[in-house]
């Protein structure tokens, strides 16, 4: 409501209305039409400028500005001439490899030392989907979140793609040389200061290699660790069955 002072000046408002020029004009109240200093002060107190900015850090006006600039930049990026790229086709493609036709390959993923049979759907040599292998007892056609994450991890641009040494890129040969130098340095005391940290190893070939290495360094230690493990499930199985076995559930 208008202030008390504006009501007292109603006479001046009436005089201004009567002395106004002819023509169509629109207003919401006589106080607004009169545009007295009292009414201007009232409007300033009731409807301050940019009051919506007090509760919202980004006003509608600024939001439209930001979005307009983003769309303009996106349009300009489409006008940039891209460098020419050549697509090299297969010189002798496989008989079964046709564009748009998927191929399925039987594969396996190891987690916690247990292999799970999978089927990889591939297009032109690029796997795009992993499903369980119905003929493998470890999956029986089903899959889990870890198998799907493994496929996404393969295309992750931030995944490790090269040997790093103290934050700088290196090579496999430098890695082998560093490991060999560390082993030779600790060989005189049986490898007392050498520790091998690996995931759970169930490969017979890799196990034989580590056994040969630890036999040459009897004081070294081989530690197998899984950051994502089934230790709680194994502990529960030991309480229920007397040994840490892996359970195979049958819901039929």
Q: Please give the alpha-carbon distance between the first and last residues.
A: 74 Å
Radius of gyration over all CA atoms, rounded: 38 Å
State the helical fraction.
25-40%
Largest sheet: 3 strands, antiparallel
Summing up helix and strand content along with how strands pair, one would put the structural category as alpha+beta
Q: Strand-residue fraction? A: 15-25%
> What sequence of helices (H) and strands (E) makes up the elements?
HHHHHEEEHEEHEHEH
Overall mean confidence score, pLDDT = 77
**Main β-sheet, spatial strand arrangement:** 1-2-3
| Beta strand count | 7
Low-confidence stretches: 50-55
**Which term fits the overall shape?**
elongated
User: Number of helical segments?
Assistant: 9
């Amino acid at each position: 409501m208008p202030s008390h002072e504006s009501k007292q000046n109603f006479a001046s408002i009436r005089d201004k209305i009567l002395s106004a020029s002819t023509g169509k004009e629109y207003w919401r109240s006589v106080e607004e039409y009169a545009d007295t200093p009292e009414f201007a002060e009232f409007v300033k107190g009731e409807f301050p400028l940019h009051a919506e900015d007090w509760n919202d850090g980004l006003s509608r006006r600024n939001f439209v500005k930001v979005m307009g600039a983003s769309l303009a930049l996106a349009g300009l990026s489409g006008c940039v001439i891209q460098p020419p790229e050549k697509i090299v086709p297969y010189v002798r493609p496989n008989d079964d490899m046709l564009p748009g036709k998927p191929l399925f390959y039987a594969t396996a993923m190891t987690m916690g030392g247990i292999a799970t049979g999978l089927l990889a759907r591939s297009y032109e040599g690029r796997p795009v989907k992993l499903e369980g292998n119905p003929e493998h007892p470890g999956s029986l056609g089903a899959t889990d979140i870890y198998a799907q994450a493994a496929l996404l991890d393969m295309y992750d641009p931030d995944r490790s793609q090269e040997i790093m040494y103290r934050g700088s890129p290196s090579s496999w040969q430098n890695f082998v040389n560093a490991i060999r130098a560390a082993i030779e340095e600790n060989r005189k005391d049986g490898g007392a200061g050498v520790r091998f940290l690996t995931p759970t190893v169930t490969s017979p070939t890799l196990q034989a290699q580590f056994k040969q290495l630890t036999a040459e360094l009897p004081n070294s230690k081989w530690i197998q660790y899984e950051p994502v493990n089934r230790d709680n499930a194994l502990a529960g199985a030991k309480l229920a069955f007397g040994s840490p076995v892996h359970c195979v559930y049958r819901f039929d």
